[in-house]
Each structure stands twice: as C-alpha cells, then as structure tokens.
Amino acid sequence: MHARRRPAAALAFAGLLAGCIVVPQTREVYDPDCQVARREVALETTVVGGFVGCHDRDCAALLATLGVVTAASVVVSGSIALVGNVVYWLEHQGRCRRDAAPAPAAAASAAG
Question: Which DSSP symbol is given to 98?
C-alpha cells in the first residue's frame, strides 16, 4: 500500500510545481519622504504551464527537471532583482529632495 502512495504523492507534488517559475517585476512606489516615485524590483511566481500525466521513471525525470527549472529561475531572477534594486536605489538617492541641512555656501548667502 505504501508503494502506491509514492507515485500519487509525487504526482500531486509535481502538480504543484508544474511550470512554476520566478520572474522579476518592476513596479513604481511613491516615497513620501522624498516626494518622488521610485522603482523597485520584486520577485513573483508565475505558472507557465502544466503536464497531463507521467509514468514511473518519467515522473522522476519530470520532477527533477521542474525542480531544476524552478531553482534556476529563482537564482537568475533573484540576481536581476538584486542588481535592479541597487541601481534603482542609487537613482533614488540622486533624485531624493529631503530637507537636509543647508550647504555652507547657501547658509552664508542667506545670512548676508
């Protein structure tokens, strides 16, 4: 009876992973401190497709392939998101208009 549960459990697990990949999505968010819209990259899961069924060794190969594809998409998309967020953060630092302490030249001209 345990032997029959394994293929069913593997098939159910494969159904959950079927064609699931992780993709980076760029979105705009408003930063009220700087009063500007800024971009950020977030990771989202997407289902690309599924499979109808498999038999014995084919299921194992399919599960391994789906696992590798999912893991690879996480690594690649995570790298893209990391680099993109660093670039957007640097861009945001240049555009941010926070009320900082006035520069010495501006403070001297205001006093004089």
Answer: -
Burial degree of 77 (CB within 10 A; 0-12, 13-18, 19+): buried
CB 43 within 8 A of CB 76: no
* Mean pLDDT in order along the chain per 10 residues (112 residues): 52 55 90 86 81 70 80 90 92 72 50 51
64 vs 77: CA distance, rounded Å: 20
Dihedral sign (CA 69, 75, 76, 81): positive
How far is residue 6's CA from residue 95's CA, in Å, rounded to a whole number? 56
What is the distance between the alpha carbons of residues 48 and 95, in angstroms, rounded to a whole number? 37
**Does the model's pTM come out above 0.90?**
no
SS3 55: coil
**Distance of alpha carbon 30 from alpha carbon 39, whole angstroms:** 9
